[in-house]
Amino acid sequence: MECVKLRGTMQHGRILSVPGGDMDPVRRGGAGDGKRPGGRSARVSASVQSAVLEMLVTVGYTRLSMDAVAERAGVHRATLYRRFPNKAAMIASTLSQLTDEVIPIPDTGSLESDLSLLVVAVLENLRGVGGGIIRAFVGEASREPEVEAAGRALWEYRLGLAAAVVRRGSARGELPDDTDPDAFVEELVAPIFFRALITGKEVDADYARARVLRQIDLARSAS
User: Fold this and answer.
1) Span 72-105, pLDDT tens digits
2) Which of 84, 128, 188, 213 is the 20 to 30 Å CA partner of 169?
3) Taking residues 43-72, what's their average pLDDT?
4) pLDDT of 31 strictly over 80
5) How far apart are CA 67 and CA 169, in angstroms?
6) Where does the record place the region Disordered (predicted)?
7) Architecture, CATH, for domain 1-223
8) The dihedral sign for the CA sequence 151, 92, 119, 199
């Protein structure tokens, strides 16, 4: 079974990992068209990004410090403080970089298959850095305007990519033309987030597929 990963992210954990399926890579546009500086600067940026994301998962926002990130990333403290005035700016920058990554989007020709692959990716993400980021926003990070804005932009971007899968399904006649893609995605993933992050109930591939089938049936019956 093939495993397609989001490129250029963490060294310890995955942002997005989808088993199997034909994937359509999508890059987030933005300033500089997603280009990164080369040489040592690029290596430092990658190391800091990896360290920040890993520590959001392992220690959370409150206990994460710039000194600890510098140590984990293997960079000098002065280098980090030259780049970022404070912890909030560092984390906001890291989240903003994630919207420039290449993200594989399933395009198998079947709405059910595409959504099942996406939901499995959501589960993998919630068990790693995605869950850490969400917990950070539920806590102290939501009080930092820079971090909150970057986080919202990241999740809106990710949900927008999933909504594109729904639009393709509607165009193929698998869903009614008046299906709201954003509402469809929110209703699909909300129970998965609730189980994974709140109740701790089991969320496996069978549950994910059942959620997909139920959401498709609801959309069709609403027309």
Assistant:
1) 999 999 999 999 999 988 988 888 777 666 567 8
2) 128
3) 89
4) no
5) 47
6) 15-43
7) Orthogonal Bundle (1.10)
8) negative
- Give dist(CA 112, CA 133) in Å, integer: 28
Nearest Cα residue to 126 out of 72, 47, 189, 206: 189
Task: Supply 66's token pair.
Answer: 């710039």
Q: Tokens 């692959």 identify what position?
A: 117
Contact 69, 51 (CB under 8 A): yes
Q: Tell me the residue type at 130.
A: G
Which of helix, strand or coil describes residue 145?
helix
Pairwise pLDDT comparison (36 vs 109), residue with the higher score: 109
For residue 166, the one-letter residue type is V
Q: Is the pLDDT score of 33 beyond 70?
A: no
If we measure between CA atoms, which residue out of 132, 140, 136, 107 comes closest to residue 10? 132
φ, ψ for residue 201, nearest 5 deg: -65, 155
Q: Which residue in the block uniquely carries the two structure tokens 């089938």?
A: 213
Q: Crossing angle for the helix pair 145-171 and 87-98, nearest 10 degrees? A: 10
Count of all residues that appear for the chain in the document = 223
User: Quick check: helix, strand or coil at residue 57?
Assistant: helix
- The token duo for 209 is 């597929």
Residue 1 near residue 120 (C-beta atoms within 8 A) = no
Q: How far apart are CA 118 and CA 32, in angstroms?
A: 28
Burial (CB count <10 Å: 0-12, 13-18, 19+), residue 146:
middle
Cα dihedral value 155, 157, 161, 166, nearest 10: 70
DSSP 8-class letter at 32? G
